[in-house]
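**User:** My hope is that you can spare some time for a protein that puzzles me. As I understand it, each token names a local backbone shape. I would be glad if you read both lines and explained how they fit together. The protein I mean follows directly.
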Amino acid sequence: MKKLTLLFLAVTLLSFTVGDSKSEYNVPYGVQSIFCNDIDLDDDFDIITGHSSPTWGGCSILLNDSDGYFSNKDSITFYPGFPEANGDIIDNNQYIDIFSTTVSSNPYLISISIIYNYGQTQFDSIKSFPIYPEPPVPFITSGDVNGNGFADLLFAHNNDFLWGIIYNDGTGNFSEPEYYDLDFPPGDIACADLNDDGRSDVVVCGSNTEIYFSTETGFQQQILTTTTSHDVLLSDFDNDNDIDIITHRTFVYPHHRVYMFENLGNNQFYEHPYFEFTPFCRYAQIADFNNDSLPDMVFIAQDNSGLFIYYNKGDFQLEYDQFIPIDNFGAFLKRIACIDLDGNNYHDIATIRSGGGTLPTNLNIKFNDGQGNFIDNPITKIKTNSISNNEISCFPNPFISDVNFKLKLINNSTIILSIYDMQGTIIFDLIKKTTKGGSHNITWGGNNFNNAPVKSGTYVARLKVNGNYYNSVKLIKY
């Protein structure tokens, strides 16, 4: 396989501002994908974009200065492209690595290429693992499918009706691909532990939505529905400490439908009545925008005019709340990523634009002020006077088994201390109660809601005091 060329470009990112707006940025041409994670382990979320075009392909890394302002660290060239940028801990350190499908010639191969992250924001090591001889392979994801504590890589192939996996040996190297046939062209693939057995299960959607439960002896297939859908999203949608399945599709123009499958435990799912709305939309993401512990849904409008948010009212009920207009400059609103980018403990929305020639800017951020508004400037250090002198600390950090939290409360307060993973999913509630002012010690044994030990990796402890998010602490578990 022809070796892919890795090239670091000294690119200076200029912020395009309208007035004092800090929400518009430029990344290189042909942006196709976006994800957010703490790429440099400095307690804030950075932005990584994937690119593919006739003139340039690669990956761009924007570092967060901790207050929601971004600067370009590197742009990394891959010929002919790095379209599906995603991130996970691939090798045996704690840094998020970057991966995507790539194409090489002589011989012609589809591979998953990984940019290994060794810290100090040095991205100068790459490996490519062939997965299939023919395109297209537009869907990739990651998960610990065999339960060995390391992220495996999964993919789905349209034309040949299959999905596949390469297994991680723990050092960042992978097995030969395994393939599993489908009766339909896949529309998406996702991965999560659906039955709390420590093994990530696989969900594929298209003409069917199917689950492949991972077991020690192989996969157990379960057809969830024969209703056509695209975009499979896995989330604890009802806040009952297990992972539910959400899919969606355009039904009959201009109607759009969301299909919701509640996890009942014991590998059983209940299909709730679908939620139908107009106008129809395209890409979707799930995030808790109002901090009520119920994940909401945000969609890209089909006409590229902006975003629609539908809030989760509980019991798998959605309700339209607001439209967020975004200038498209004649281009497509391609993808979105939702995470707290400015440190105020509310999920923000980053949107990429692609197509339409040269654009003034091709990355937009809408910052969530916590009051239902999405605005053009970061919201930082929002703490009410009543909680501004409270304190939280933890030790040891990094930790192996137990970590101790020390809280200092100025007044009697109602507090919630919860653990989240780096995707914003709640892992465990340490304390939910009204307590007296003063010092308090709380120990977390590194377990999740099902009393199973969490994997090695990075987590966030968030403290909520009297209904207001006060502070967060990043944890590293070895």
Q: What stands out?
A: Confidence is low (pLDDT under 50) at residues 1-20, 382-387. The first strand starts at residue 7 and ends at 9. The chain is about 0% helix and 50% strand. The two ends are 36 Å apart (CA to CA).
